[in-house]
C-alpha cells in the first residue's frame, strides 16, 4: 500500500491528512492494540472530497467513457484484488477481527462483485427502443449515471459492503466519495489505491476517513451530492434518510436484520439431516461472531425436536475455537470493539432477567495463548425458552447470541418468522418440498434460503423488506440504483400541432 501514515484521505487524486490534522488509532480487536493510524477527517474534508467528485462528474471524462472501457477497468481492479488477496485478507482480519480465512473469502467476493458489474454493463445494448405507434417517431429509453454518489459503509464486512456500492457506481459512470466505518477503514483505503493503479481518472474515487456524525452526516446533507447509499444500523440509516430527503437525493439503505432460521422436525428425521441442520444453525448464528446483518440469530424450531436439537447445538457452540483471527485453527474471532461486546452483554443480561434459559456461553472466555486478555472476545451463547416480548428477540444484537423459540404448526412458524420489524433474510429447513415453497413464499424477507443459510450470489438482488432497508444491492437492480433513466423522443417529421389557434 502506498498510503503513508495519517494520509488516508484521498481527494482529487492526492493522498492527504485531515485538514484539522486530527488522527485516529485503528485497534486490532484481538488485543485492543493499535496497528495503524489514519486521518480523522471532518465536515471540511467531506466538502473538499465532494467538490472533487462534482468536478470529475461535471467536467471529467469518466461519465462518458465508453462502457467497454469502464468494464475493462473494473476487470483490472478485480485482477489487482486477486493479486493482493493475501495482504488484503490479512488486513481485513486485523481490522474487523474475523479469521484470515474469512478475510480471504471476503476479498474473493469483492473481486467477484467487480467482475459481475463489468460483465453486466458490457453486455448491455445502447438503450431500449420503444414503439411509439408511428414510424415518424424514434423513441428510446437510455440509462445515465446519477452523478456524485456518497457511499457510507459499516465495520462488519468493510470491503465487501464498499464493493457492492463502488463497483456498480463506477460501472454506471458515476463519481463517488466514500466514508468507511471509522473503526475499520484499512481495506477501503487500500482499494482506492488499486482503483488508481487500474487507471481511474483523478477525482472519480475519493475517500474521507472519519466519524459518522461529521463526515457521514455531511455526505448525506450536502447539496452537491446526488445519491446516498448507506449500509449500517437502523438509527444512523434513519438519520441519513432524513438528511437526504431535504435535498431530494436518491437514497439506498441496507440496514439491520433479525433473521429467522425456521427448522421443521422433518428436516431432522435422518441423522444426516439432523447433523446438517445443526451445523448450519451454528454457521447461521455464529460466523464472524454473529456480526452479520443476515445472521440467523432467531432459531424457530418445531417443538417436538427442540430438546434434542438445542442440546446438540449448545454442545457444539461451546466447542467453537475463539481466538485471534490470524492464529491457525481459530474458528471465530473477537467482537469488533468493547462497545459491541458490552452491547451484547446487555442483551444477554436482559434476556436472562426476562426468563430466557442459558444453554451455553453468556460470558467472556478465559484468556489463552490464542486469546489475549485485552481482546474483545465473547462466548457463543444459546438462549432457550425465548419469546417475542424479549428485547433480545426483537432487536438486532449483532453479537454471538442465538435465541430459541418454538412452534407446533406451519402457520405458527410463519407468523413467528414474520413477527419482526426487519425483513432482511430468513431460512426454512424441511424435507417436504411443497412446504418449503409454501413457507418461502410467505416469508416477508428479502432473501429466503431453503435448506441452506447465508449464501448469496452477485447476480441476485440483496436487500430488505420493512426496516431492513430501501432499494437493492447486487443483481441488475443493484446497478439500476446508480442510474437515471431517460426517455429520448425524436420526431423525425416535425409539424405544427395547432393546439392554439393564433
Ligand atoms: P452504524 O450505523 O453505526 O454505522 C454505519 C456507518 O454509518 C459508519 O460508517 C458510521 O460512521 C456511519 N454513520 C453513523 N452515524 C451517521 C450519521 N448520523 N450520518 C451518516 N453516517 C453515519 O452501523 P455499524 O455499527 O457500523 O454496522 C452494523 C450495522 O450495519 C448493523 O445494523 C448491520 O445489520 C448493518 N449491516 C447491514 C447490511 C445489509 O446488507 N443490510 C450489511 C452489513 C451491515
UniProtKB/TrEMBL annotation:
<dbReference type="InterPro" id="IPR016162">
    <property type="entry name" value="Ald_DH_N"/>
</dbReference>
<dbReference type="InterPro" id="IPR029510">
    <property type="entry name" value="Ald_DH_CS_GLU"/>
</dbReference>
<protein>
    <submittedName>
        <fullName>Betaine aldehyde dehydrogenase</fullName>
        <ecNumber>1.2.1.8</ecNumber>
    </submittedName>
</protein>
<dbReference type="InterPro" id="IPR016163">
    <property type="entry name" value="Ald_DH_C"/>
</dbReference>
<comment type="pathway">
    <text>Amine and polyamine biosynthesis; betaine biosynthesis via choline pathway; betaine from betaine aldehyde: step 1/1.</text>
</comment>
<comment type="similarity">
    <text>Belongs to the aldehyde dehydrogenase family.</text>
</comment>
<keyword id="KW-0560">Oxidoreductase</keyword>
<dbReference type="Pfam" id="PF00171">
    <property type="entry name" value="Aldedh"/>
</dbReference>
<keyword id="KW-0520">NAD</keyword>
<dbReference type="InterPro" id="IPR015590">
    <property type="entry name" value="Aldehyde_DH_dom"/>
</dbReference>
<feature type="active site">
    <location>
        <position position="254"/>
    </location>
</feature>
<dbReference type="InterPro" id="IPR016160">
    <property type="entry name" value="Ald_DH_CS_CYS"/>
</dbReference>
<dbReference type="InterPro" id="IPR016161">
    <property type="entry name" value="Ald_DH/histidinol_DH"/>
</dbReference>
<dbReference type="GO" id="GO:0008802">
    <property type="term" value="F:betaine-aldehyde dehydrogenase (NAD+) activity"/>
</dbReference>
<feature type="domain" description="Aldehyde dehydrogenase">
    <location>
        <begin position="17"/>
        <end position="488"/>
    </location>
</feature>
Amino acid at each position: 500500500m502506498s498510503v503513508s501514515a495519517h494520509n488516508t484521505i484521498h481527494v482529487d487524486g492526492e493522498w492527504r491528512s485531515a485538514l484539522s490534522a486530527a488522527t485516529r488509532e485503528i485497534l486490532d480487536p484481538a488485543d485492543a492494540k493499535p496497528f495503524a493510524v489514519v486521518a480523522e477527517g471532518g465536515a471540511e474534508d467531506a466538502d473538499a472530497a465532494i467538490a472533487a467528485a462534482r468536478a470529475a462528474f461535471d467536467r471529467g471524462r469518466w461519465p462518458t467513457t465508453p462502457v467497454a472501457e469502464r468494464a475493462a477497468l473494473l476487470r483490472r481492479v478485480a485482477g489487482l484484488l486477486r493479486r493482493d488477496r493475501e495482504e488484503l485478507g490479512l488486513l481485513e482480519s486485523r481490522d474487523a477481527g474475523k479469521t484470515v480465512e474469512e478475510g480471504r473469502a471476503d476479498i474473493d467476493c469483492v473481486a467477484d462483485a467487480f467482475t459481475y458489474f463489468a460483465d453486466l454493463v458490457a453486455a448491455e445494448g445502447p438503450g431500449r427502443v420503444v414503439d411509439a405507434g408511428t414510424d415518424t417517431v424514434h423513441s428510446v429509453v437510455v440509462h445515465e449515471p446519477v452523478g456524485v454518489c456518497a457511499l457510507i459503509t459499516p465495520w462488519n464486512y468493510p470491503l465487501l459492503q464498499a464493493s457492492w456500492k463502488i463497483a456498480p457506481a463506477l460501472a454506471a459512470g458515476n463519481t463517488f466519495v466514500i466514508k468507511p466505518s471509522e473503526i475499520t477503514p484499512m481495506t477501503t483505503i487500500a482499494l482506492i489505491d488499486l482503483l488508481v493503479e487500474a487507471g481511474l481518472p483523478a477525482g472519480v474515487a475519493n475517500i474521507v476517513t472519519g466519524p459518522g456524525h461529521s463526515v457521514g452526516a455531511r455526505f448525506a446533507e450536502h447539496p452537491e451530492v446526488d445519491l446516498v447509499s448507506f449500509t449500517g444500523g437502523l438509527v444512523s440509516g434513519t438519520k441519513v434518510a432524513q438528511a437526504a430527503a431535504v435535498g431530494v437525493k436518491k437514497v439506498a439503505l441496507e440496514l439491520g436484520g433479525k433473521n429467522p432460521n425456521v427448522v421443521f422436525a422433518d428436516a431432522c428425521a435422518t441423522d444426516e439431516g439432523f447433523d446438517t441442520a445443526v451445523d448450519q444453525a451454528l454457521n447461521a448464528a455464529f460466523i464472524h461472531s454473529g456480526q452479520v446483518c443476515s445472521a440467523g440469530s432467531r432459531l424457530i424450531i418445531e417443538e417436538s425436536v427442540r430438546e434434542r436439537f438445542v442440546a446438540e447445538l449448545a454442545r457444539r457452540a461451546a466447542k467453537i475455537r475463539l481466538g485471534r483471527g490470524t492464529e491457525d485453527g481459530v474458528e471465530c474471532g473477537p467482537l469488533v470493539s468493547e462497545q459491541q461486546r458490552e452491547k451484547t452483554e446487555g442483551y444477554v443480561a436482559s434476556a436472562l432477567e426476562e426468563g430466557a434459559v442459558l444453554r451455553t456461553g453468556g460470558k467472556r472466555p478465559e484468556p489463552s495463548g490464542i486469546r489475549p486478555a485485552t481482546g474483545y472476545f465473547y462466548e457463543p451463547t444459546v438462549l432457550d425458552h425465548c419469546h417475542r416480548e424479549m428485547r433480545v428477540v426483537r432487536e438486532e444484537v449483532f453479537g454471538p447470541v442465538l435465541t430459541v423459540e418454538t412452534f407446533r404448526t406451519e402457520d405458527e412458524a410463519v407468523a413467528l418468522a414474520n413477527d419482526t420489524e426487519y425483513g432482511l433474510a430468513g431460512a426454512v429447513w424441511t424435507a417436504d418440498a411443497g412446504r418449503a415453497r409454501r413457507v418461502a413464499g410467505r416469508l416477508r424477507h428479502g432473501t429466503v434460503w431453503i435448506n441452506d443459510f447465508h449464501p448469496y450470489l452477485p447476480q441476485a438482488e440483496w436487500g430488505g423488506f420493512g426496516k431492513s432497508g430501501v432499494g437493492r444491492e447486487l443483481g441488475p437492480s443493484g446497478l439500476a440504483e446508480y442510474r437515471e433513466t431517460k426517455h429520448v423522443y425524436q420526431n423525425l417529421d416535425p409539424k405544427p400541432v395547432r393546439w392554439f389557434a393564433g
